[in-house]
């Protein structure tokens, strides 16, 4: 019960700082591209070029395909765009505390908003990439579907999952640099074991129980269910409760650990 009360007070304090969080996240998003000739275009070019290369390799080289008539490039984009947000937000959010030492040492500054600021900054790019994805669907002749209305649900749930993880790893990162290396390896491994450019239906049933432990499979399947398969999230009755449970676990754990370690950040940094 004390943990839940602590979590509630932590979240309430963050809500009271919502205006500052939004302002800082916008500034962080702009500062990433200041001084470069292409500016914000770099934010779109990096994931777009990667998707183009993967599409060429697996669509032309290895003849990658899906079991449906959907073009492979659309299948790929529906998987890579949410993964790009997940990976970028965790990588950036993990270093949000150590990268802002001057703010951490200010007594009246709420340090817990720094990870949220970085995640929101990456979320703005995610919205841009989603707009590009929708545009590409239009180019291929697809029309808007009512199933697109559940995209905010999947995006919001992914945001909460990332927030819990980032609170946890950003707090631990202050005390040890090894966390950055560990998370880097996990993200690299996660990219290959998550069905971004391959179909999970091709995996033997005996391995499915292990793959399903990866919560990002729920999100990526959700994006594909919204754009391609036309399946509502409540129809995934076997996996939705598991994902929500994992998200709540990381959210509460991350908030509690961050709150416990926060008083020591200034001493370490």
Please describe what this structure looks like.
- It is built from 12 helices and no strands.
- The two termini are 32 Å apart.
- The chain has 269 residues and is an all-alpha fold.
- The chain is globular and about 60 Å long.
- The mean pLDDT is 81.
- 71% of the residues lie in helices and 0% in strands.
- It has one domain (2-268).
Properties at a glance:
269 residues, 12 helices, globular, single chain, mainly alpha
Task: Please estimate the helix content.
Answer: over 70%
Poorly predicted runs of 5 or more residues: none
Number of domains: 1
Q: What coarse outline follows from CA principal-axis ratios?
A: globular
- Going by helix content, strand content and strand pairing, the class is mainly alpha
Number of helices: 12
Give the helix/strand layout.
Blueprint: H1 2-15, H2 18-31, H3 41-61, H4 72-94, H5 101-104, H6 113-139, H7 151-175, H8 178-193, H9 205-211, H10 216-229, H11 240-261, H12 265-268
Helix pairs in contact: 1-11, 2-6, 3-4, 4-6, 4-7, 4-8, 4-10, 6-7, 7-10, 7-11
């Amino acid at each position: 019960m004390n943990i839940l009360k602590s979590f509630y007070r932590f979240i309430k304090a963050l809500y009271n700082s919502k205006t500052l969080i939004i302002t800082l996240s916008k500034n962080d998003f702009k500062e990433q591209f200041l001084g470069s000739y292409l500016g914000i275009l770099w934010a779109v070019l990096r994931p777009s070029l990667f998707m183009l290369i993967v599409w060429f390799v697996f669509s032309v080289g290895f003849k990658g395909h899906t079991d449906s008539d959907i073009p492979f490039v659309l299948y790929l984009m529906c998987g890579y765009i949410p993964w790009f947000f997940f990976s970028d937000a965790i990588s950036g959010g993990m270093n949000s505390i150590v990268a802002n030492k001057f703010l951490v040492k200010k007594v009246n500054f709420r340090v817990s908003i720094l990870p949220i600021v970085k995640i929101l900054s990456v979320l703005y790019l995610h919205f841009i990439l989603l707009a590009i994805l929708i545009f590409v669907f239009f180019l291929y002749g697809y029309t808007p579907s009512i199933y697109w209305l559940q995209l905010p649900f999947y995006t919001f749930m992914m945001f909460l999952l990332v927030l819990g993880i980032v609170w946890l790893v950003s707090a631990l990162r202050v005390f040890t640099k090894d966390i950055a290396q560990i998370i880097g390896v996990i993200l690299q491994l996660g990219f290959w074991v998550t069905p971004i450019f391959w179909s999970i239906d091709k995996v033997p049933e005996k391995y499915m129980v292990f793959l399903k432990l990866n919560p990002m499979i729920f999100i990526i399947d959700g994006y594909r269910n919204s754009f391609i398969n036309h399946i509502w999230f409540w129809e995934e009755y076997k996996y939705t409760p598991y994902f929500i449970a994992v998200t709540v676990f990381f959210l509460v754990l991350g908030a509690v650990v961050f709150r416990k370690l926060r008083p020591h950040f200034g001493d370490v940094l």
